[in-house]
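Work package 3, deliverable 3.1, input record:
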Amino acid sequence: MVDTFLDIPILLPPLIVGLSLLILFNRIPPSACCGMLAGGALIAAIWGAARKGNGIVIRFLVGSAILFGLLSFVFAGSQRSFEGIVSEVGFPMTFHPLGVVLAQFPVAAAFAVRTMRTTFDQISPRYEEVAMTLGCNRGQAFMRVVLPLAGKGIVAAGTMAWARALGEFGPILIFAGATRGRTEVLATSVFLEINIGNLPGAAALSLLMILLAVSTLLIVRCLAGRGGAV
Amino acid sequence: MSGGILVLEQVTVQAGDFVLSPFSLEIREGECVALMGPSGCGKTTLLETVCGLREGPVGGRVVLDGLEVTNLPPGARGIGLVPQDVVLFPSLTVREQIEFGPKLHGWKPEEIKERVESLARDLGLEGLLSRLPEGLSGGEARRVALGRALALRPQLLCLDEALSGLDEARHDEVLGVIRKMIEREGVTALHVTHSKKEAEAIADRVVVMD
């Protein structure tokens, strides 16, 4: 069940993540949601079938579209939208720099949680058990024994999540926009530079992203090579 | 049944599909008992129940030094465990492994230092105190695990096939160290093993589970 929810943002086509966030934030009227949901689910199902040929993937995608749809109806049905609520407490989201973070979050967090879960799964519960015979309670055993063992895996998870967020494009473009100097990130900058015909600028930014991606991979491999539970 | 440092009264344990038939045992203070039996008969399950590492037994009672510990957490039982797979904490040095329990129990630094040095001397670990587990041999790792389990001066020392996987020379060496430490510390011991020879060499009494 947890795995299914973790897979949703990873497997969703990026544009659908962005659209889902807009629906969630009530920027699209409820009447339009129905059509979009049906269309989104259909596209997702066809995309999943074509790409993987795997029934599980289709279920994930259709399920996720329904999940986002249900959330949208919850908020659309109330007088105050989710957007309105978060704006009132000082966190405007759509087409705002904070929206960039929110658009990056679902996929990046899913990568981080998946990596960390693998890390913790590799650590034998025997460590906790022995620590408990020495006087630890479960919390102390986790903090004193398990967490130090998972340290490298947690760093690797953070690195992977950061790298994934760095390359995020579709959801940011749709949910936060690509406004110069406001909601612009590396990936959307490449898009903006191409739009104004500045190909050398776009190439330089792309090269920078490649360098960052390679550095990230090297860091993760280095951590894994040192025997950490990555 | 009473008077033993460890008393198991009709203990029944369920672990998945496996059910341990009611089992009773009494171990006197200072006695070393070897628990033998065929694979899958529930020796390790019983040992883990004694240590509190399994949910409370389905039936029966575990009494340690007159106090019922059936539902007490592992750390409150006063039992030291040397597991089959040794399980040294990878990020801690040998000194930190032995200090782990005393530090958790709030011993004074000078008491901890004295205890660690005393155990290191008795176990032949003096030159290894700053080493991490990854650099230790099988025999050395067993001795560190024994030191860690004895550091808190437990009422009962549980050894779960603690000598398995060692070659003959290391096996005999570690067996001698365990025997010596049990006598020197005056600790009561429950030793789970497959080997009749090992059981006879280390134990005052051998109990066979069917």
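The CA atoms of residues 196 and 202 of chain A lie 10 Å apart.
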